[in-house]
Amino acid sequence: MKRTVTLFMYAIFIVAILAGCGAQGNNSDSAKNGNEFDISREIHVISREEGSGTRGAFVELFGIQQKDSSGNEIDYTTEEARIVNNTAVMMTSVAGDIYSIGYISLGSLNDTVKALKIDGVEPTVSNVKSGKYKIARPFIIATKGEISKVVQDFIEFIMSSDGQKVVEENGYIPVLDNPAYSGDKPAGKIVVAGSSSVSPLMEKLKEAYLAINPNAQIEIQTSDSTTGINSVIDGICDIGMSSRELKESELNAGLTPITIAMDGLVVIVNKGNPADNLTSEQVRAIFTGEITQWSEVLE
User: Fold this and answer.
1) Which CATH architecture has domain 138-263?
2) Of the candidate ranges 122-126, 173-177, 220-224, 265-269, the one whose mean pLDDT is the lowest
3) What percent of the chain is predicted at pLDDT more than 70?
4) Which phi and psi angles does 42 have, rounded to 5°?
5) Taking 60 as the threshold, does the pLDDT of residue 141 lie above it?
6) Nearest alpha carbon to residue 229 among 261, 252, 207
7) Predicted confidence (pLDDT) per residue in 166-217, tens digit
8) 34 pLDDT exceeds 70?
9) In this predicted structure, what is the pLDDT of residue 35?
10) What sequence ranges are listed for the domain PBP (predicted)?
11) Is the Cβ–Cβ distance between 286 and 268 less than 8 Å?
């Protein structure tokens, strides 16, 4: 009898140990999966590369870029920021780091990350259209000098009701209410280069246009806004894509800009982050390095 009781107690002891180990394992897994958020941790700022139109628009809209005493525009993004070179890497980086914060195009937003309200306003197409959500910028294409018939025809498609429908269907804001496309479907090749934010929309416009005009060939080279604009200036491509306004020097180089859509800029965090809303001033302070811990914006 005594031996039976002893064995029974020993069995209970072993079960308790195993249960404890299991619980510890679950807690560890939760931390790894981002289910536990420590607000005392440092904010991991992720920004885009210099030359990115998305970065240019972001630092301007949030006041991160300001004039110095000599009147020069200076980008005060913190030197601690991790720099990534396209939208896809930005989203992957934020999705993989629970303490990170970054920014992307509204049209590129998916469910791998969480979009924050800014000043209490949700970043949606309707809020950008109404002007409630003020963090928005244009998507621009640029050409130089005389352009080929097929390039002109593609641009006319983009700005037609057919092209602007593609804009709207892909989560961006159309800019015109023009008649339907009525081009004569010329043959030829078009090279488009530039912004990784505009590129996903351009791919959809290319697909829709080629369905109507199979005589055309369109090559899209994705990089950043500045590279795209310089490629047009240098005659390397026919159409440059920019997710920012053109600079005076670029206009003086003979470029013709056309706004093809409007797009919101979205501040994103990891889905495990409890943050829901930040003020514009808090965003500015985070990206300039004045605010460095989550506890300063989460209470």
Assistant:
1) 3-Layer(aba) Sandwich (3.40)
2) 173-177
3) 88
4) -70, 145
5) yes
6) 252
7) 999 998 999 988 999 999 999 999 999 999 999 999 999 999 999 999 999 9
8) no
9) 58
10) 41-161, 181-296
11) no
| Residue spans per domain, the chain | 44-136+265-296, 138-263
Structure-token pair, residue 298: 């989460």
Amino acid identity for residue 254 in this structure: G
Determine the topology of domain 44-136+265-296 in CATH.
D-Maltodextrin-Binding Protein; domain 2 (3.40.190)
Q: Do the domains 138-263 and 44-136+265-296 match in fold?
A: yes
As a whole number of angstroms, the distance between CA 231 and CA 238 comes to 8
166 within 8 A of 208, measured Cβ to Cβ:
yes
- 53 in Cβ contact with 199 (< 8 Å): no
Q: What is the pLDDT of residue 72?
A: 86
